[in-house]
Design brief:
Rossmann fold, 12 strands, single chain, alpha/beta, six-stranded parallel β-sheet, elongated
């Protein structure tokens, strides 16, 4: 009697939904799940699923890993701004003929009352800040604080999961917190620190969207950094659709 080989899926994590996806995927019969995290957060929220942490070493390193681990399927559930790994995954899976799915949460949409200034990147955001205010809520994570470190005439409120390196931190106050955050909390935060401008990535999702609602209510402008381009390929916007995709391949 021949025993059917389990299929192995590599989930490239990075957004909160990837943890939910990993948990649900692990319950699919005939499917082995490996979760991969970039390691940007030194203490990520971990589950019992086998997890690797760290980069792959570019496209060639990812190809080697996919071969060594005999990966049959790949789900790219990385952060919308982690475009490099998404492009690497697209190239590697194409070369190895491995089915790939992207789980991409929808971007936030500008609504009536929003005072958004949409910019391409942090460098452009830095240029427009002098026109908007000097007390800034910098909500971009710790990896890119260095773009603002030279701005000595501004005061920054910076919120992130872990402490950043001191040499790349602009002047101001650091809050180490993990979302989700409520609308009441965000409104109180903006008022307590007399925030005049918010700088945010358009990450999408519900966990940090209340700050955008609070800014709308208080009339605070938001410098919204737009997402980088992502590769072509099959995409879904929710975990349930990604689970259905995996079930189809595991049957």
């Amino acid at each position: 009697m021949t025993v059917a080989k389990h299929k192995r899926v590599l989930i490239l994590g990075g957004i909160g939904d990837s943890l939910k996806l990993t948990t649900l995927a692990s319950t699919i019969p005939g499917l082995e799940v490996i979760n991969s995290l970039a390691g940007r957060t030194r203490q990520p929220v971990m589950k019992s699923t086998p997890t690797r942490i760290g980069g792959f070493g570019g496209v060639s390193g990812l190809i080697d890993y996919l071969r060594e681990q005999q990966i049959d399927l790949l789900v790219d559930a990385t952060h919308p701004f982690a475009s490099k790994i998404s492009w690497n995954a697209a190239i590697a899976t194409s070369q190895l003929n491995i089915p790939r799915l992207m789980l991409v949460r929808p971007a936030w949409k500008k609504m009536e009352g929003d005072r958004w200034l949409e910019v391409e990147n942090n460098e452009v955001a830095v240029k427009v800040l002098p026109e908007l205010g000097s007390r800034i809520f910098l909500s971009i994570g710790r990896q890119e604080l260095g773009s603002y470190a030279h701005l000595k005439n501004f005061w920054f409120l910076m919120r992130m999961i872990e402490q950043p390196q001191p040499d790349i931190t602009p002047p101001g106050k650091i809050l180490t917190e993990r979302g989700p955050f409520s609308l009441e909390e965000e409104r109180s935060l903006l008022q307590k620190y007399e925030i005049e401008v918010i700088v945010s990535k358009n990450s999408g999702g519900d966990a940090t969207y209340p700050k955008i609602i609070a800014a709308r209510e208080l009339g605070i402008p938001v410098v919204m950094i737009q997402r980088p381009s992502l590769p072509e390929g099959e995409k879904v916007t929710d975990v349930e659709s990604a689970v259905s995709w995996l079930r189809n391949y595991s049957d």
